[in-house]
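Thread: 1-deoxy-D-xylulose 5-phosphate reductoisomerase, structure

OP (GT): Posting the sequence first so everyone is looking at the same thing. Length is 396 residues per the record. Can we get the structure tokens written out before standup tomorrow? I want them in the notebook alongside the other entries.
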Amino acid sequence: MRSISIFGATGSVGESTFDLITRAGGAEAFRTVAVTGARNVARLAEMARSLRAEVAVCADESCLPDLRAALAGSGVAAAAGDGAIAEAADRPADWVMSAIVGAAGLVPGLRALRHGGTLALANKESLVTAGPLLMATAAAHGARILPVDSEHSAIFQALVGEDIACVERIILTASGGALRDWPLEALAQATVKEALAHPNWAMGQRITIDSASMFNKALEVIETREFFGVSPDQIEVIIHPESLIHSLVGYQDGAMMAHLGAPDMRHAIGYALNWPERAPLPIARLDLAQIATLSFRAPDLARYPALRLCREVMAARGLAGAVFNAAKEIALDRFLDGGIGFMDMAGVVEDTLARVMPEMCLESDVMTLEDIQGADHLARVRAGEAAHLLAQRRAT
Ligand code: NAD
Ligand code: MG
């Protein structure tokens, strides 16, 4: 029986993973080692009971009494805190879903790779923050990382049977997010609610805002470089409002391989779960005659400064990705709590990169977890300062 763990089980990707595991037989078909969440104790306990997990862990330590109570008599152990999540990743499992949001997903992902199984990686932030370390850890332990981000799953599938040396370009598609058709001048006033109205994908709150600002696509450009080892100038971004082509690979003979499907994360998750085989999945089938047209347009860099910033980050290499991701997380926190405006997020990130990068040794790709955590911490402090200054200016 295959053993699995789901990190970030109570989130959007986690719920889709749970759905597929349950449809495939749940506790009768898989031995579940660990399920984790942040604070949603009731749902976490429900999942843990259903899958008969060995352990359920919530990140928030104050939730432990409630989690214990919810699991009483179930035989599932309860634990809490970041340390307990990392320890849950030390328990070997054949297939581990990494679906925690943000840099918090890095340590559990690294720890899980040490068992040499498969890490299904939705947590793109860990590749952006620590790509070389993650890849080196996987290689050292004979572990495999499979992409779960829909674009990267599409690219991975378009590369099957091909030689990466024959790849000329990789084209990431972007929906353009909730504010795609707003006039540029109006973007500064956009509210959280408006930025959350994603046209095609139902996702967690943070990635939905990141889609509107294209910080999500900026992270994905870096994720592409780290995952497939192509150079930054081979990676392009195109706005494709229908979100039916999930990405494309262009080869040196001019051919392009595109991956099409309904915008449903269960495709990419299911592909990673069943790989190298394909299994039936409960995904809506496309009716091309009804769709009739697919449209594309080049992204306007004035609307999406994140797409320019990710190029600077890739040129700087080293710890720049950790700085970029951490600054973005703080800027997003401040936007969500009303401290700064929608377009200020890019300002905070740009300011943080300018201040932190000269303070860091960035040239080398040989990085330790301590280097990364140091860069992440410094970037959060500097981004907090930059956001504070902007918030003060807004208030006066
Ligand atoms: P989400 O916010 O819906 O869920 C995040 C999960 O992580 C939840 O279980 C939450 O409880 C847990 N969590 C939050 N903070 C934590 C912390 N500090 N420590 C431990 N656990 C914590 O997010 P999501 O939309 O499911 O996204 C998860 C990851 O997948 C992200 O990296 C995102 O970029 C990536 N991703 C998501 C989608 C999507 O369709 N939602 C698509 C592609 C990639
Ligand atoms: Mg994506």
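GT: Both are above now. Quick notes for whoever picks this up: The chain is about 45% helix and 15% strand. Residues 8-14, 37-38, 59, 85, 99-101, 104, 122-125, 149-150, 201, 203-204, 206-207, 265 surround nicotinamide-adenine-dinucleotide (ligand 1) (CB under 6 Å).
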